């Protein structure tokens, strides 16, 4: 056991990912589906970005990996559903996560509801729940950083029971108590929501109402949201 | 009786778990492990909810060994350390290792997949009753586990205690 020579110099995780199924490629990371200790898992790999200075790239990537892990743990501790973290490899910046089975993205759910001609009112329950969860997350001072309807999964309930919502992709998340940051978080969601789902202003309004009603800190955030709407996401006008 | 699982990340390795109850020679076993006569980690099964918990620890230990990043001196001590939610090594051994007076032991072995594992040799060292390895959930002390890993009641709403434990183990390097 003491002498286990590696087959070659490539890290074991990189070799493993060659066999895994690539399911998504973004600007920050690649997402794979594979197995981890007999369970189905999602693997998020933050690859090297060659356009950045290697030292800076290494630092940023590592920090984002660590931040993603921290935010997920913080959410789960507060009872907000997020995938279980199975394993983190800081040498290749890979996170092994629980696969959320039997789920659709909220984006798909809303789109199919709209396509089947359902009234917007049928989705009010969903909007209420999203508002409540986001208020809870912001109460924990977790700012998601990339709220979209694709980053909220809807798990179908078993035997007629209500489903649950799972937040995913905390890759751009950070910890902040500032209403400003939370306001921007909601602004990003609003932009994404209204551009992916046409004619859902009333639905988003409902979400915001539920958000406001769920937390004492929410009114300050909504106030900031109104400011952000006027000026856009960036506070200063440089960069 | 025993459970063997391949490590997908390290295809040449497998992990085998053997569980014993009514063990009368824990002091002797511990001495043998310290002297390197038992090629495995001796774990206090009252702190283990599920075989997956020890598997995750073993996977992490092998990973750190391959990268030369172990915090303890051997692969087996690293498995024990990986189970702990904190970065305190002596505390980890105290909580997750076996003590002389214990009456149950979980042995975790890491071996080459193809090797025929000499389980009999290990089993013969233990003066106790081998029971199916997946029965650890019946002998673990769930209240103690929840307390040590600081599992909150809210957290149990969005997942099992095992989920909470696995997250703590995976995230302990950054908290």
From TrEMBL, chain A:
InterPro entries attached to this UniProt entry: Bud32, Kinase-like_dom_sf, Prot_kinase_dom, Tyr_kinase_AS
One MF term in the entry's GO annotations: protein serine/threonine kinase activity
Gene Ontology terms describing biological process: tRNA processing; tRNA threonylcarbamoyladenosine metabolic process
Places the protein is found: Nucleus
The keyword Nucleus belongs to this UniProt entry's keyword annotation: yes
PROSITE patterns: PROTEIN_KINASE_DOM (PS50011), PROTEIN_KINASE_TYR (PS00109)
Keywords for this protein: ATP-binding, Hydrolase, Kinase, Nucleotide-binding, Nucleus, Phosphoprotein, Serine/threonine-protein kinase, Transferase, tRNA processing
UniProt main location, coarse: nucleus
Cellular component, GO annotation: cytosol; EKC/KEOPS complex; nucleus
Reactions catalysed, as given in the entry: L-threonyl-[protein] + ATP = O-phospho-L-threonyl-[protein] + ADP + H(+); L-seryl-[protein] + ATP = O-phospho-L-seryl-[protein] + ADP + H(+)
Family, per entry: Belongs to the protein kinase superfamily. BUD32 family.
Name this polypeptide is given: non-specific serine/threonine protein kinase
Automatic annotation (TrEMBL), chain B:
Listed GO CC annotations: cytosol; EKC/KEOPS complex; nucleus
Key words of the record: Cytoplasm, Nucleus, tRNA processing
Cell location: Cytoplasm, Cytosol; Nucleus
Span of the signal peptide: none
Alphabetized InterPro entries for the sequence: CGI121/TPRKB (IPR013926), CGI121/TPRKB_sf (IPR036504)
GO biological process: tRNA threonylcarbamoyladenosine modification
Predominant location category: cytoplasm
Pfam families: CGI-121 (PF08617)
Gene3D superfamilies reported in the protein's UniProt record: CGI121/TPRKB
Record SUPFAM superfamilies: PF0523-like
Superkingdom of the organism of origin: Eukaryota
Family in the record: Belongs to the CGI121/TPRKB family.
The protein, known as: EKC/KEOPS complex subunit TPRKB
Species: Pygocentrus nattereri (Red-bellied piranha)
